[in-house]
Amino acid sequence: MKRLTTLLLMAAVTLLCVAKKSDWVRIKNGDLWYDTAGNVVQAHGAGFLQVGDTWYMIGEDRSRSWNPDVNMYSSKDLKTWKFEGKIIENGVTHEELGRSRFIERPKLMYCKNTGKYVVWCHWEGRNYGASEAGVFVADKVTGPYRFHAGERPLGIKSRDCNVFVDDDGTAWFISTIEENQHLGFFRLADDYLSAVECTQLFKRQAREAPAIVKVDGTYYMLSSACTGWDPNQCKLSWSKSMTDGWSRLENIGDKIAYDTQAASILTIKGTKKTTYLYVGDRWMDPDLPRSKTIIFPISFSDGQCDFTYRDEFEINFKTGEWREVK
Ligand code: DGJ
Q1: Is 61 in contact with 86 (CB distance < 8 Å)?
Q2: In a domain, 3, yes or no
Q3: pLDDT truncated to tens, each residue of the chain (326 aa)?
Q4: How far apart are CA 104 and CA 123, in angstroms?
Q5: Fewest beta carbons less than 10 Å away: which of 56, 116, 150, 256?
Q6: Is the separation of the CB atoms in 143 and 87 below 8 Å?
Q7: Secondary structure element (H or E) that encloses residue 71, with its range
Q8: What span, in angstroms and rounded, lies between the C-alpha atoms of 279 and 211?
Q9: In angstroms, what is the span from residue 5 Cα to ligand 1's centroid?
Q10: Minimal CA–CA distance to 70: which of 54, 81, 55, 83?
């Protein structure tokens, strides 16, 4: 009897340890990701939307290098990715897509006012001459997504892009405008389907790959210079307002952003802590199809960003904490 009790106790302790341990997810950088069906995850220039405890990721399918479709994946731990399908497909979603038009940097938002899911992206043509933005809309997060518009927002030439939804639901499309000279901060209409106003910022500073996050009432933006697929210095700017008062761009991290270019910044809100995760593209590693998605925790305070690369780290999605791998 005593022996049985000891055995049961040992089993209970083991179970407890396993349960506790499984709250921590280890993320390792530098390798290709595989989805739950065993296929390479193709979601470059990724955009994210959190719905409950599920993260939806959309991005460029670069498996044929050029003319990417847009793939969607879902995950609860940013490590186990289920392929949800091609939400935007060449020749299917729009007849010109894959022929005279291609997509880069698709980003996903949920519009509370309409109950619709909205994708904004770079909608491009030969030699990056079109310089347009594409808008797609769906009733369900996984689609089907319908083409809504492909044009220069407010008539302004627009390339690399991202989106940002503020606490009050105001949505922004931020893009590299007028032949890569400035950044355009486009405020979107209440239904997120068009731009209503553009504020030109970072004039003649040639920034691209913008990614914005709001931390304790302050907006922080990471961005890169324009060097094609080659990595360059990531810079930080911060402001108390989206359209005014942005600080001077400051270098963060090493000279090539640890061989990445910003795609998104995720906010992991847990019961104990909020952790911010940088998501960047390690392009051409060694070619476009094998470009990697890199994730590591970053932090912001007092106009500063601790942007330190971690090859591996562990994160607890319940508590929001992260820790080094020893
Ligand atoms: C850098 C951009 O950030 C990418 O999205 C892509 O447009 C490449 N340039 C193309 O060279």
Answers
A1: yes
A2: no
A3: 455 455 455 555 444 444 455 799 999 999 999 999 999 999 999 999 999 999 999 999 999 999 999 999 999 999 999 999 999 999 999 999 999 999 999 999 999 999 999 999 999 999 999 999 999 999 999 999 999 999 999 999 999 999 999 999 999 999 999 999 999 999 999 999 999 999 999 999 999 999 999 999 999 999 999 999 999 999 999 999 999 999 999 999 999 999 999 999 999 999 999 999 999 999 999 999 999 999 999 999 999 999 999 999 999 999 999 999 98
A4: 7
A5: 256
A6: yes
A7: strand 69-75
A8: 9
A9: 63
A10: 83
C-alpha distance from residue 15 to each of 8, 18, 26, 151, 317 (Å): 10, 5, 20, 56, 20
What lies within 8 Å, CB to CB, of 159 at 6+ separation is 122, 124, 128, 131, 175, 176, 177, 180, 208
* Residue 21 forms part of a structural domain: no
Evaluate: CB of 229 within 6 angstroms of ligand 1.
Answer: yes
105 lines ligand 1 (CB under 6 A): yes
DSSP secondary structure string for all residues of 132-188? EEEEEEESSTT-PPEEEEEE-GGG--EEEEEEEE-TTS-EEEEEEETTTTEEEEEEE
Residue of the nearest CA to atom 3 in ligand 1? 209
CA distance 131 to 40: 30
Nearest partner of 115 among 195, 166, 53, 190, judged by Cα: 190
Ligand 1 within 6 A of 217 CB? no
Q: How many domains does the chain have?
A: 1
CATH label of the domain that carries residue 278: 2.115.10.20
Q: State in Å: Cα 227 to ligand 1 middle.
A: 8
Is position 4 within any domain? no
- Residue 107 Cβ inside 6 Å of ligand 1? The answer reads no
In this structure, what token pair is assigned to residue 78?
Answer: 């940013």
Whole-model pTM?
0.94
Distances (CA, A) of 198 to 94, 155, 174, 201: 27, 10, 9, 9
Rounded to the nearest whole angstrom, what is the distance from the C-alpha of residue 167 to the centroid of ligand 1? 29
Domain hosting 246: range is 33-324
Tell which atom from ligand 1 comes closest to the C-alpha of 261. 3
